[in-house]
Fold MucR family transcriptional regulator.
Amino acid sequence: MLHPVGPLPTAVYWRRRLLVLVGTLGVLGGGSWLGVAAATGGSTGADPASDSLAAAGATADAPTPALEQVLPSLAAVEVPTAAPTTSAPAPAPSAAPAGPVAGGPCTDDMISVDVRPEVPSSPVGGKPTFDLVVTNTSPVACVRALDKGLQEIVLLDGAGDRLWGSNDCFPEASSDTRTLQPGEAVVFPVLWSGLSSAPGCTADRTTPGPGSYVLRGRLDTKASGDAAFTLT
C-alpha cells in the first residue's frame, strides 16, 4: 500500500490517493452537518430566508387563542347607567267653575231680595204697604219656591230691636213654585197694620211712635239689605 506499483510514476498514484481521501472526508463532513441541522430544527443562522420560513411555519402552527381570551365577556363589562331623573308632576287641569244651569233651581247666589216701602214715610198709626221684591239676577232661567210661608218682612227700631213681623199674627200658607227668567222680578205686597207684634202674636200690640226705622226682608234663607222708613 505504501509503495504503489504500476507503469506510471509513483507521484501520480499518490495524487490519486489524496483526491480520494479528500472526497471521502467531504462526504463524511456533509453528512455530519445535515444530522446536526436536523437535530437542532434546521436553522443554522447562515440562511435568513430559511429562518424566516421556519418562523412563519411556527407561527402558523401556533393555536389561535379563543375569542373570550381576547375580548372581555359582555357580562363583565359595566355599562354606565344614566342617573334617574325625577320629573315634576304635571299640573292637574283646573276644573272650570260650574256656572248656573238653565232650568235648575235658583240658588241664593242667583237671586236678590229687596224691601221697598211704597212711601218713604207714614203717619203714626197708619197702614203703609211694603213690597218684597225677588229678582233673578242670573243669566239663565231658574226655578224657586216663592211660598207665602217663606216670605217675611220685619220692622226694627234705631237700636236694632224687632218691633213687628209680617208672619207674627196672620201667617199665610201657599204653594208657589215659579220659573224666573233672567232679570225677572216678582213683587209681593205686604200690608202693615201700624201695630207692633211678636212671633206667635203672644205679646201686647202697641203703636210705635214717630222716628226712624229699618225694614228688612227675606225669602227663606236669602235675606235682603236694610231699607229706611220713617214714622211721622
